[in-house]
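Reply to dn_fold:

You asked what the input looked like. This is it:
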Amino acid sequence: MKKYKATDPEMVQAEKDLAKLSNLSNRVISNDKDLFQELITIQSKLCEISAIKANFMQRYEDILDEQARIETQLCVFQHEMLHSFELVFRYYKTKKKGFN
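and this is what came back:
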């Protein structure tokens, strides 16, 4: 397991995120303007989540496409190898004396 230092980028980002979260508890909705601002924040975060999910799904589909391409290529190689083995076997069988 990796040991993190306070200067590691992950730790710096975590500190920023914690500071951001601690400021959330100081907010209060006291009028319609505040309410609409919070609703805008919710909508914005939902859009960000949707974008992240869409990006992930696209990468996942790309991985599945690559997997299918690789599996097809491996099947072709396997077929070529089996064909070569069959040719070697036939040659050996017709010679009946083994390899020279």
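The two ends are 57 Å apart (CA to CA).
Hope that clears it up.
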